[in-house]
Amino acid sequence: MKQQFKQWLLVAVSKQLLGWLLLSSVCLLLAGCWDQRELQNRHIALAVAIDVADGSETEVETFVQPYGGKQFRLSVQLLDVAPTQGEQGGGSGNQTYVVSNTGRSFLEITRDMYGQLGKIISWEHIQVIIISEAALEAGGLDQLLDWFMRDSKMRWRIHVYVTPGDASPILAYQPPSGEANGIFLANIARNNLKNPHIASGRSDLGFTVIKLDNKIPLVLPKIELTDGIIKVSGVAVVKNNRLAGYLNEDETAGGRYILGVEKSAIITTRCRDHPEHILAFELFRHDTRLQAHVSGDTIYYTLDITMYGQIGEMGGCTEPNDHNTSNPDYIRKLELQFAEEVKQSVELTLKRQQEQGADGLNLGRTLKIQYPNKWEEVKERWNEEIFPKIPMVVSVNVNIFQVGEHK
Amino acid sequence: MSIFGLSGANGEWRQVGGKIRLSGILLVVLISIFIGGCWDRRELQDRNFVLAVAIDTADAGEKPGQSQAAKQTETFVQPHGDKRYRVSLQILRLGQSGRGGDGDSQQAGGDSGKNGGKTYVLSNTGQSLFEIVRDTLGQSSKSLYFEHIQAIIISEAAVRQAGLKPILDLFLRDAEMRWRIKMFITPGEARPIIEYVPPTKEAGGIYLANILRNHPKNIHVAGARTDLGNISVMLSNKQDMAIPRLEMTNNIVKSNGVALFKKDKFVGYVDEQVVAGAKYLRAAEKSAIITVPGDSPDEVVAFELFLHDTRLEAHVDGDTIYFTLDINMWGNLGEYQTPGKVKGAGDPAFVRRIEVKTAEEVKRIVLYGKDTCQSMGVDILTFSSKLKTDHPKTWAKVKDHWDELFPYIPLVVSVNVVINQLGEHK
Is B48–A177 a contact, with Cβ atoms under 8 angstroms apart? Predict the structure, then answer.
């Protein structure tokens, strides 16, 4: 009996001990602080600019490379975690600063950059990559983006911009709103929902990677900085990793109408009776269908767009006139006029893209999905021979529901 | 059996009750999802509030050294129209004031950097204001909210291009715009005015709008019935109107006088005295200071108006149309300056003399205002609407040639002033 009790006690104690041990070891592991690195001990990179190295950098700002030559200049914008008042240029708004380095391999450049920094760089929060036109010419898009695609720290929703000028001054720009520059730049792209002059959301790093892998032409939003004014408008067309040209604001909007990726838009037309006045339609909703058709050897496309919206602005035509917005007949006339404008805008964009020989409108993909056999036949000749001459039948229908608060 | 029957019914009841309860819970959950109302929320700090809008000609303020490239960046390729207007938006800078302090100037912000403090300015050029505003999103990290616009400032040059209507159409049509937005016309460039940082450090747009709210105490400011809503009504009725004039020189911003419009066409500016005259005539004044000479010409007496009773009446006598204006004013002797003498104002005879002089002065100002408006052919005196309500038949007869008649309409003015008090000190 006594023996039994002892044994039971032993088991009970060892069980209890085991439990305690388990508990404390779980605590040790769960806390997860064995490799902790506090926020203030990281440099958070917000934006990256890629330029060609023009020899203007100081000798300290670079390093001796075994291979590759000084081809690119990589500038990295870092978040100032604890900005002190009046630190730089008397501005308290300076939440960021820029470091740069030159070389060939971006990974090598960034690692050498640690020689200028007190902390390691965290890349997880990059918002934008800005590529200068010259760097795009020199490197090709796939080479420039390789590290960003390969490194596990890079997010797919990073915005990629192309600038005709130098890229690094854009990182040094202080937004008037006082935001951190990288976040400011990324958020401009988010305004594409209201402004069709900005490339659609399908132009970020993730979509760009997919298009690069599929070897199809792509568009990237264009950013410009002149005399302290920063602006995102229009797109750069990239074909075979090189710049094929730019589309201006109107053509960018046309491209978005074709792809059906516009959310809102302002479409203007001249007043028939008073050509010096223009009227504006505000798009609320649309139904866009792009269809490929194959008829024997001929490939053609039909684009059917139905738009719903309201009159956004009347030109204030000189009185007396018959512009009575409460008259349905007049509204029907305006609908036809706006539909014609959309059609012209779409056709203009198609023509420009065909001149550039770059199918940034995904017409090839549409054919591939709808007529895979035909695509197999033509895919070799698509970009050079077929796309530049492809016909598109455009039919646009505009419905004006409202005329605004004031007739 | 009966027990079984009962328990069966009970079980059924339990089943039904359970269903009701379940659907009730589902309903509560569903309702709470919808009334949360947060599916499309957008926080305050994620909006760019536009506080003021300045409209210039597209080439306004161009300096010889200015680069063409910057102008190119600030605009866009239009399918239609030309570069007619430059729209500048004053945007509230959120979350910055606490850290900035006074010398919060943005060195790299370019032109917009000039305006430190609580706001900054974005500009863009084009013809359709709506198109311009949407394209400006390419310069802004957040979408623009127009619900809180306080003031619209239009330069004279911009309004001379094609009148007022093309400029105001967007503001009248868009649902985001309020009718109580204050309007100004400036003879110079409009953009520097919204870049101006008020000495009070208020946000610029709020400061500008509040200038006009002082109109009940300042007879020189035309703040009554001149905001966007009133202008909308007058534009639709094809009436003439006055819009306050705003001027900025040497970093001093002041609203003085008004710009007169015939329908939507700019005619010219008139001074503070005309504004005062028109306000007396339309009974739009709440308080006023009227100065007259005292017994000797170097003395000045100021009458402070407290209360008035003003009646404008249209009269038709055969083919003649004339108006009568009867004004009764009650007030205070506000100030009595007698250089080099010690003199009280306690003499009742003296007070009566001042009353008569003040009445004469009011009459003179009213007639000066009326004559000026008539010579410019702009009926801001409400003569036409008065005739229309009082004598609709006569109005129907004359309305087609009212423009020709208006400059010659006579007005008979009779003013009576009563001074009730002399102030705290005799």
Answer: yes
Q: Where would I find the H helices in B201-295?
A: 204-213, 228-236, 272-281
Residue of B nearest to A185 (CA): B141
Q: Is the pLDDT of residue B112 over 60?
A: no
Compute the distance between CA of residue B289 and CA of residue B310 in angstroms, rounded to an integer. 17
Whether B266 and B287 map to the same domain: the answer is: no
Residue with tokens 């006045």: A277
Nearest CA in chain A to B68: A226
Residue B97 banded pLDDT, cuts 50, 70, 90: very low
- Chain B residue numbers touching A403 (CB-CB < 8 A): 173
| A72 interface with B at CB cutoff 8 Å | no
Chain A residues within an 8 Å CB radius of B174:
312, 404-405
The mean per-residue pLDDT over the stretch B55-62 comes to: 86
Residue ranges, chain A, pLDDT below 70: 57, 83-93
Residue partners of B110: CB distance under 8 A and separation at least 6: A227, A228, A229, B70
Task: Report the pLDDT value the prediction gives residue B154, as an integer from 0 to 100.
Answer: 96
Give a yes or no: residue B276 inside a domain: no
Task: Kindly state whether B129 is in contact with chain A, defined as any CB-CB distance less than 8 angstroms.
Answer: yes
| pLDDT tens for each residue of B241-257 | 999 999 999 889 999 89
Residues B286 and B202 in one domain: no
> Is the alpha carbon torsion for A76, A82, A83, A87 positive or negative?
negative
The answer to whether position B13 is within a domain reads: no
For an interface test with A, which of B66, B77, B147 has the most A Cβ atoms less than 10 Å from its Cβ? B77
pTM above 0.90, yes or no: no
Chain A neighbors of B141, CB-CB under 8 A = 175, 177, 179, 183-188, 190-191
**Whole-number Å distance between alpha carbons of A114 and A109:** 9
**Residue B237 forms contact with A (CB below 8 Å):** no
Domain count, chain B: 2
A184 vs B contacts (CB less than 8 Å): 141
Q: What is the value of ipTM here, to two decimals?
A: 0.86
What average pLDDT is seen over chain B?
Answer: 87
B25 touches chain A (CB under 8 A): no
Q: Give the domain extent around B301.
A: 282-421
Of B72, B100, B138, the CB nearest to A195: B138
Kind of pairing, strands A72-79 and B144-145? unpaired
Among residues B56, B51, B284, the alpha carbon closest in space to that of B181 is found at: B51
